[in-house]
Amino acid sequence: NDTGLEIHQTAGSSNNGGGPFLGPGLRVGFQGLLHVEVFRQRLLDEFDLEAIVTPPKVPYRIRYLESKNYKRPPGAPEEEVIEDLTDWPAQGHRFKVLEPMVDVRILAPMEYAGSIMELTKRKRGIKIQTKPVDEHIWLFTAAMPWADVVTDFHDDLKSTTAGYASFDVSEADPPQQEADLVKVELLLNSEVVDPLAFVCHRDAAQSQARVVCQKLQEVLPRQQFVTVIQAKADGRFIASARIRAYRKDVLTKAGKTVGGGDISRKKKLLQKQKKGKKRQQSTGKVQLSQAAFNSVISRS
After folding, report:
1. CA 33 from chain center: how many Å?
2. Tens-place pLDDT, residues 61-94
3. What torsion do the CA atoms of 32, 22, 86, 27 make, to the nearest 10 degrees?
4. Cα 257 from Cα 300, distance rounded (Å)
5. pLDDT, tens digit, 9 for 90 and up, residues 136-188
6. Which of 21, 32, 147, 283 is most enclosed, with most CB atoms within 10 A?
7. Count of beta carbons in the 10 Å neighbourhood of residue 284
8. Do residues 16 and 22 touch, judged by C-beta distance below 8 A?
């Protein structure tokens, strides 16, 4: 139960959550990807539970605009807050997105100033300021999108500063900011996998989609059929990758070559194998591991 989880792992907090794809679950707060792995391992060791941790949810405020091509139903709200990306407006809607912002304060040795400034800018930080605390420690402040902080900022900051930096966050003023964001969907063999979807700035959509596709190519298990990984945004594909299928040697049986020197017999067997793999590709399912979800969490 929730209480047992929090007693055994004091750095985490939890409440009920879940989604239509993976079913019921818990919404748990973590301090980074390392904390996620420790939490999952303790669940396995102490409770014999295999858990899947999905990317964190961020509340986006959607403001709908008038559109000639798409009329909203009577009584539909002009503005709504969504966390589940399955509720993201479909293509054809005109809307603005306001994302939550936080003020970030970082304490770190001054020799890491350049790396911290570069990381903060990469995470779309604005209003970046520095202030010496003493002759060795500097204070860095910035306003950053919560979506860029809640994913892998903790891990990147620790990695950048050899573990010496610490940071905290508070709600920014104003707490939300309009941004040019786009939802990126991930498809496996033409089937949309909702839990792998993510939202990012439009300018970074293609580069982040390529990173996710490449990481998925490395971590998804190889199948008896080809696995096609695709990323889609604004109704078009922006990145893709393929995982080759295992290939059985159908031309050899019991150590002997089938068909002898008959080339037409060999072509027939290979054609039959090709049709079978194509059929498997359309019906086969790819199992998602924790590494697949980590590909989305640590994509930037």
Report:
1. 12
2. 999 998 777 777 788 888 999 999 999 998 888 8
3. -40
4. 50
5. 999 999 999 999 998 889 989 999 999 999 999 999 999 999 999 999 999 99
6. 147
7. 16
8. no
Tell me the pTM: 0.77
- Residue 52 C-beta-side C-alpha neighbours within 13 Å: 18
Residue 188 and residue 286 in contact, taking contact as beta carbons nearer than 8 Å: yes
Burial of 198 (0-12, 13-18, 19+ CB in 10 A): buried
CA–CA distance, 78 with 176 (Å, rounded to integer): 17
Reduce the DSSP state of residue 132 to 3 states and report it: strand
C-alpha distances out from residue 236 to 51, 187, 212, 231, 232, Å? 33, 12, 16, 8, 5
3 state DSSP class of 243: strand
b/e string for 25-64 if b means 16 or more Cβ within 10 A? eeebebebbebbebbbeebeeeeeeebebbbbebebbbeb
- Give which of 30, 77, 80 is closest to 55, Cα–Cα: 30
